[in-house]
Write a structure and sequence with these properties.
The protein is built from 12 helices and 12 strands. By secondary structure, the chain is an alpha/beta fold. It binds S-adenosylmethionine and iron/sulfur cluster (2 copies). The site of one iron/sulfur cluster (SF4) has 12 residues, from α8 and α11.
Length: 332
Amino acid sequence: MEYQNQTAERTSNISDQPEHLAELNRIASGLKNPTFPKIFAVELCADCDLNCSMCHHDQMIRPKGNMPMPLWQKCADEIAEIAPKTNVWFSFCGEPLLMPDRLIEMLNYGEKVGLKSLNLNTNGMRLTNDVAKRLLDTSLSTIVIGIDGFSKEVYEENRFLGDRDIVYANVQFLLEERQRRGQGPEIMVQFIEMDNNANEFEAYRNHWLGLGATVKLRRQLSWGGKFETAIDVANERRIACPWAITMMHLFWDGRVPRCPGDTEGEESAGNAWDDSLKDLWANLSGYRQLHLDHKFDDLPERCDACTDWKTGASIKLRPGQVDHSERIRPSQ
Ligand SMILES: C[S@@+](CC[C@H](N)C(=O)[O-])C[C@H]1O[C@@H](n2cnc3c(N)ncnc32)[C@H](O)[C@@H]1O
Ligand code: SF4
Ligand code: SF4
């Protein structure tokens, strides 16, 4: 989620803090029931080469496959016709750089039909120099690389099967190549706050800001209640779930889950092969309205265990900004 908040302070254990509650209320005040999603997450490839500690990927039981080009073309055409500025993100679950050629083909098609905001989430392991150059040739707006640690030990504990030195070198090359070209997408390194990495954040931030990256700090999601998180907000303070209100997710096989917590598509709205995205989004309107009307008891059971409505905004620090250190105080 791309909410931006440059003033919030952070600790890794949030329990009904006034600043966090104010942040949630600020987010809630901007939520309406839109006729088309603001953000699309497209699962190009459901397989992955890592097994990250905070990710539900290793619990996935639905079949894993790759999105066929005609399905993406159908979706891209419709988004371009209805709302070309929609933020489109590759990927939802899985690692898109397992299929770099398909990804680039999809990005080029999206650009050709007029999509204005194409963005990538990757673990960075396969972001080789060649792939980096090819991605910089596309019209990508943002590349976010998930790097949840500074030391080799902590990075590899969180991003299990990843190699800290390879990812750090890959992203450094990407930054240098963008610098050499004098233009390119925003390049963000994303740090998910967890118990084992908070004390590394300062070194991480200094390293990456020094190399020209944007540093994005986000809180941990529970993925529909599958993981415990450190965020504790009383149910009386509950807000409509920003994920459900703003985002549509598309599995590789065309199915549209109810929300990112519905990782198996058990509450699916239908399939994009069969229906328009607009109709699929409309199928979820009743859920959105329940959120907005605060009828939380009427939502599917998954919403009881899920803490993802509490997550709040990410913080983005950009090179050249002043006073970073005062804003973030990870616990030791
Ligand atoms: C599921 S991943 C798929 C893309 C790619 N494999 C990656 O790791 O960036 C999508 C995004 O979710 C993030 N993510 C995974 N588990 C998370 C969690 N428990 N809380 C917050 N973000 C999480 C990843 O860091 C990544 O930015
Ligand atoms: S690399 Fe991405 S999809 Fe794969 S396990 Fe890690 S967070 Fe999940
Ligand atoms: S709170 Fe409910 S709607 Fe929001 S992500 Fe969790 S399960 Fe989905």
